[in-house]
Every structure is written in structure tokens, then in C-alpha cells.
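Limitations
The C-alpha cells in this dataset are predictions for the assembled complex, not deposited experimental models. Users should treat interface geometry with appropriate caution, especially where small molecules or nucleic acid strands are included. An illustrative entry is reproduced here so readers can see what is and is not provided.
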Amino acid sequence: MLAPGRAKPKPTPETKHFWDGCKQGKLLLQRCGDTGKVYFPPRPFSPYTGTRNVSVFEASGRARLYSYVIHHRPVPGFTPPYAIAVVELEEGPRLMTNIVDCEQTPEALQLDMPLEVAFTPMDEEITLPLFRPAKEAR
Amino acid sequence: MLGRGEIAIVGAAESTQIGVVPGMSQIMLHADAALNAMAETGLKPTDIDGVACVGPMMPQQIAHYLGITPKWVDGTGVGGCSFMLHVRHAAAAIHAGYCKTVLITHGESGKSRINATPRPPEPESLNGQFEMPYGPFGPPTLFPIPVLRYMKERGVTHEDLATVAVVQREWAGKNPRAMFRDPITVEDVLNSRMIAYPFRILECCLVTDGGGALILTSADRAKDFPTKPVYILGTGESVETNMVSQMKDFTSSSAFRVAGPTAIEAAGIDRSAVDHMMIYDAFAHLPLYGLEDLGFCKPGEAAGFIREGNTRPGGKLPLNTNGGGLSYTHTGMYGMFALQESVRQMRGTAPAQVPGAKISVCHGVGGMFSASGTIVFSNERP
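Predicted assembly:
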């Protein structure tokens, strides 16, 4: 369970499946029915062609560290210094997250290091898709 | 089609004071700058028939406060470059005959927070759901998110980024209104307090109070004003995404690549003809992205271009000559102040005047690479 104080997301009709998936330990992405391309954040149509013909599927949870900052000032729910990261999923889309089970230093946080999703509950309603160094890298 | 130089800036002024202004609320900073701009043109509020300012419900607040009955309004709010978009939209509106004389205002009590309007993302917004839970706390934690990727792909060093701040301080040293004027070194920057790695405090913009206003009219009418007209040669605008995590390319801004070249092409100028440039520097990486995305440097060459002194006083492309958001002022929406400096340079009245400058490119960013606007100015009508 995460320390209290973080901003808590409030799902909408268009994103509920994503947050329900996180609660069940599944990282759900969407695929465009026209192009087969994957996209994020969730929406019930394709940003590539505008088609409503889209499907939801479970992603592998594998990613690489794409970029980040290490924040040195206090924020409710966080102990500085902490990294705010963007990871690139194996399926293509990128998302903002935090990196856990890892020192929050430039030395430990190497760009392109392999990561895997680490679902971490905020409370009974919301589970966040955080990431940690992949097993083979640890 | 709007002609090159068909519209001119005839009024341009900042609030009487900038920096720390505890004696004025946000709306009065708008008004103070507007009154200063009207004073230099000899216009009264009743002479203004178009109003633009940032944000929902704002044009009516400003129009009413100043006593203006507009025939045209624009409340475009896409962050700190909104004023570049206002200039573009106003030029089109004057061309279309919707209005004759447009007032664009900005006021922000960014430091003193008097009547300021904080708007944290709603937890149901996409930012609220997919960025805020991970601990961002304002622009210093979000705007630099792409920087490490840019550094890795482009071979840019911490020293290169620090050099941006050092050069801008050099310009600020020539400007009595700049908040920070003492010279700094790369070592000073790299030893300053860490805010959000890779950025230290001297690589982050100031937080100040201030306002600015512009008055636009047709070039044909501009000669009736006491001020030296500054002609609009070309304009451009674009947006990409409100979530920095979703920008397509972390080494280049889509909004920059649309707005900048659109303005330069519309102006019909060669980049080598540009005498002066402003690139909105909320953080030290912005001038690097701007120089590359607007085609003044090839990808990966902007850091070397700055390191070699090209943007310094005496260099071939004087950049951010007021000291920029890093050293001059940054209320929260700095684009207005970048425009003011371009106008001063074209009028020949800047504290650090570029001798003989005839063409100025003013490039703004809004949000965290989420929007962009570019204006090409000249003091000569083509």
C-alpha cells in the first residue's frame, strides 16, 4: 500500500476499464482496428484513424526507462528525492509512473534499463501501475 | 490572405513595475500595462474595439475593468505562448474587418499571488489520472521530463545546459529591469540547489509578478501613431498534447516544428536574415529545442551553437536579449515579455539593443511543450 497523500485518479467512463484492470493486476491497452497500432491514454476510438473499432488487450508489462526527473522537494505522499519517470512499454505507448525497488539516483536509474510493471494499491479503489527493474536486470 | 506587414504593433508596454509587486492584484497588472500601452499611443479605452487575454471568462473581466466595448474578443488560453496566438488571431481579425484596434493584455501575480487563480488538474482529467498520481509538483517537475532523453540522444552535457543560463545572465546584466543581473559561471549553475534532476535552480525560470500589453492596428493606420510601428511579417501556431509524458518525440516539439516554420515561411524570409531572436526559456533546455525545431540549428547542434558564443552579446544570433525567463522575469506566462522585448528591439529602444536589427523572431511555448506560437517582426514594411 502506498503512503497516503498522493493525488488520486478518478476514473471516467472512457478509462474505467484501465483502472479496473490495474486492480486485477492487468495492464490493459487499446489497439486501433484499422492500423493495429496500440495507443494510450485510453479512449473508445483510435487517435490514428478516428475509428471506433478498437479492442482492449492485456499488455506484457515489460517496458524500458525512457526519461525521468528526480524531484528534490517535498510533495504530499512522497519522500524526496524521488523519480517521476516515463517508461516506454514493449507495445509502444509511453506512460508516466514511478520506479520502485530501485535507488532514486542517476546512477541507478539508467535510461533504457528494462523494467516490469509492479501494481501497487493506493487504497481499495485505485491501484497504480508502478514499475521496477526487470528480474533479469536485478 | 493576410499580407506581409499588413498589421503593425503600435503600442507595447509592460506594467510599471515587474518582479515583486505586492501593491497590485492580478487584474490591476493587466490594467496597468494596458494603460501604459494606451498612453504611448494616445488611445483611450473607447478607441479600442478588440480585446484578447488568456483564459475562460477573462476577456469580459478585462473589457469591463478598462471600460472597453469590443466587437471582437479572444480568450485563447494555451499557456505562456497564448499572446503569440492572440497576435496572430488579432492580425487576422483586423484583416477581416472584424475590428480595427486590438488590445492584448497579460497580468499575473505569480509571486505575490494576489487574486491569482491556481487550477490544479481535476482528478478526472487525463492529467489528473495519468500524471498527477506520480508526484509532479508544477512545471519544474514536468517540463524537464524529456531532458535526459534529449541529452542521451543528442550528446548534450550538463555543462551545455548550464551554459544557456550563463549566457542569458550576460544579457540580463545589461538590463536594469532584470531581476537577476550578477554574472554567473557554469560552475555556479552546477553547484546551485538541485530542484528536479537534471535541473538546478539556476536552470529554472523565475517566479515574478508583472504585466504587459500590446496594441495592434493596420499598417496603414500605424503611421498616425507617435510610436515607431513594428510590422508583423509572419505568424504560426500549433498544439500537441497537454501531457508531457505523451509528447511524441522527447527530443523535438511537434508544436514548435509547426508554429516556427509556418511563421518563417509566411514572412518569406531566409533564416540568415534574422537579426534577433526570442525563444521562451521557462527552463534551460527550451532554447536548444527552439533553435533546432525552428531550423536555426541542425538536430544536436544547438548546444554547440550556444557554447561557441553565437547567441551572446556580439554573437551572430542575439537570443533572449532581455535576460529571458531565467534572469529577466517570469510571471507564469512569459510569452508577453518575449514579445515586448522583440518590439523594443525593433523600435531600437531595448536596454541591450542589437545595433541595426531589422528582423526579430519571437517564439513561445505553452504548457510543457503542449502549445506554441511564433511571430516574425520587422521595423521595415515589405
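Some entries come with short summary sentences. For this one: Chain B has one domain: 7-113+206-378.
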